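REQUEST ID: PR-0412
SUBMITTED BY: lab tech R.K.
PRIORITY: routine
TASK: structure prediction, single protein chain
INPUT:
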Amino acid sequence: MAFTLNLNKSEFDATLQIKAVERQEFQRRVFQNWINSRLKNYPDSVQVNDLFKDLRDGTTLLKLLEVLTGKKLKPVKGNMRLHHVNNHNNALNVLKEYNVKLIGIHANSLADGDQLTTMGLCWNIMYRFQIVEAMKGGDSKNAEKELLDWCQYILKSFAGIEINSFQPSKWKDGYALNGIIHSFQPSLFNMNDLSKMGDAARIENAIYHAKHTFGVEPVFEPNDMISDLVDSKSFVIYISQLYMVLSSLTPSSKNDESLSKVEKAILDELQFLSSKHDSTLLQALQNPTLKDLKKRYRNYNVFFKELEAATERINSVKVDYECIMQSNNIASVDKENVTLSFEKLINTYKTLQSNAQVARNAVQSKLVSHLIEQFDQVFEVIKQVKHDHDNISKTLNDEHSLLSEVQEKNVLCEKTIAVLSEMKPLVKSLNDLSEQLSRDLSINEPVKKKLHMAGNNVQNEFEILIVSLQKLLERSQKVLDEKKFKDKMKNWLSGIQSLQIWLKQSLQLKIDFNSEQLDNELNKIKACLSDVDSKWNDFLKLTTEWNETLCDIVKNNDYAVMQEDVQKDFADLHKMLVHSNNQCEMMISENLMKDQSNVLKEWKSFFNPMYEEINLLVNSLVKHPMEMDIISAKRRKQNIKEYENKISSYMKEIELLKERKLRIIKQKGFSVEIESTIEKDVEVVQSLLLNVKVAVKEFNKLFLDDYQKLKKRE
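STATUS: complete
OUTPUT:
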């Protein structure tokens, strides 16, 4: 019994030993195949036929590292063991730079062809440059886990396929491998048909399609999986190769969705771009104004923002399009169709962008020209305003400038400020537009710099000039008030002095004035006195206002003295006027008495001769006409006629005398006694004339009778 057990144990050990040798041989073959797949990229097409023998000199190892790292590694020439060890040391130094595990691996062992050391080195190299590299250079500790996560993600849509490690026993039925292949190319086979196959056939199906569809070279045969020769290391190597090819592709379940998404996105963008092709923005403006250009430029900014958004969307579409083109799961005809659509989209976009840029450049050029022209016009205004500013300042600084000149400059200053205030919105608008254009990336730097400087200069000059003019206006108003104050004082002083001179001259002349002249002079004095009183009130009111509002002017010594002089002269003039008025009234009273006496004398000298003449006439009439001869009678008849005419003339003179009496009384204001005397004299003359008139009438009647008798007698 014991023998039997020993025999079985011996057989079992032998079996294990055989299995170990087979597995080692399998690993050697896997490592050798992987190395040869990489050495294909070496210029000399080096191949490894015997892994342990061909790697001993270190030259093949250095060539492999050249392919894997891209570094130029020059081997040491020579066939001695020393040369081989140096080559391996150089190789190990390179591997250290890439964090390849080298524990227990020495150059001497490699040069001696030690199989375990060589196999360990090969696995570490494969792990670093296959598995870790496949996972995008991630952490070597997590590389296998990330690879397993990817497999689980791809297989999650397949019911009943679950894996949780890279143990070959979990994969040997072939469903998981076929599931990964089918996910990226469903048209290769039907997953339902796999159930009709055995494990080896399923594994062979997966390995076949992986090689012929995706170009993944197998590192083991299907029977190796069935016979349990494949270990986890070898299997991870194969899965990592699949990952390197398939990870850049999209699983088929998502391919159709991605293709539809790209096609729809391309169509949407084409529709958007086509709508923009019909935009009026691409049409040229005819004789545009600055307002038209600003509006068009603003619209261009909106247009290009929309175009920028479209650019971002098209770039996103491009990324999806490139994924479609790289996918091996998309039919060629679909790729061709989507390529035509995408190329049409790009061409449409480029054409629209080019046309819009040409149109915008034309508007920009005109806008810049208009803007510079506007700036030049504003600068001309500023230049003229500066000239006016200097002239105004010069006038204000001149102490001898007239009030009218200051008033003229004050009005000019106000008008200039009004003009600049009206221009202020325009200047701000021009400056804002200049700033906007200077930020436009499509305008060349010299033009942007010129616009920026012009805008800033205009804005600064404009603001400084307005402030300066406002200060100048305040100063001008102050000088104007000073001039008005001073001129008013001078006018008052001059007027007062003129009145004083007139009064002095008047006092000398009034001695020779008659009553009428004195009356006129008195009226002048009274009017002047009233005017002076009115001006005095104006002066008090004005000086009160100026003392409150223009205290800095009034406090000036010159103006204070002038104000005091005016006050003193006003007082003196008022005294002179009152004195002259009193004197004039006194002289008028004296002259009135003289006039009354003279008029009375004049009246008597006129009245007495007339009275005597009338009496003589009456006395001559009492003589009898019969005592006369015919010649005397004729003469007397003629005298009677003359008497009648003379009486008529006297009557008229009496009427004139009465009128003169009334006029004298009215103008001179005679006393009651004189007026009564004149009235009595007039009555006497009138009565006497009536008597004469009656006597002449009677005499004429008698004379006519006698005259007729005398004429008959002859």
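NOTES: Confidence is low (pLDDT under 50) at residues 1-7.
REVIEWED BY: pending
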